[in-house]
Amino acid sequence: QVCRGLGTPLVPVWLCSLGGRHSVLFSTDSLLLSDWKRERVFCLYFYSGQKEQIKTASLTIDTHSHHWEENRCEDPSSLRKRRPPIETAIRTKWAGATVSWNGTDPFF
């Protein structure tokens, strides 16, 4: 028998398949998706299961950032401009959001 919490989790959880690898993106804030004010700046946790990932990455999402604040003098094809697939996935829910990896090196 499956517990009720499995069908309706108490916190937002997304199972992701990025580049053929499965990962989990989640929040500890149970009101994140039901209270629009909490969607301004919030934290999501990302775990990919890769050997290189020692601990869960803590990502800060800012949904009210401005695209013109990004550094435009960089070559768009540079490695720094490439974004990890998880950032693209996050932007499918929160278009235009910026993602801060809080000191963790982004992994692709």
Specify the biggest β-sheet: 5 strands, antiparallel
Order of helices and strands: HEEEEHE
Low-confidence stretches: none
| Distance, first to last CA | 37 Å
The outline comes out as globular
Cross-sheet strand order for the largest sheet: 1-2-3-4-5
The secondary-structure class comes to alpha+beta
Enzyme class: hydrolase
Domain Deubiquitinating enzyme MINDY-3/4 conserved: 2-103
Pfam families: MINDY-3_4_CD
Protein name: Ubiquitin carboxyl-terminal hydrolase MINDY
Key words describing this protein structure:
single chain, 108 residues, alpha+beta, 5-stranded antiparallel β-sheet, globular, hydrolase, ubl conjugation pathway
Structure write-up:
With 108 residues, the protein is an alpha+beta fold. 12% of the residues lie in helices and 26% in strands. The protein has one domain (13-100). β1 and β2 (21-26) form a beta hairpin. It is globular and about 45 Å long. The protein starts with a helix and ends in an 8-residue tail after the last strand. The mean pLDDT is 83.
Give the helices and strands, then pairings.
Elements: H1 4-7, E1 13-18, E2 21-26, E3 41-47, E4 57-62, H2 85-93, E5 98-100
Antiparallel strand pairs: 1-2, 2-3, 3-4, 4-5
Task: State the gist of this model.
It is an enzyme of class 3 (hydrolase). By secondary structure, the chain is α+β, with helices and mostly antiparallel strands.
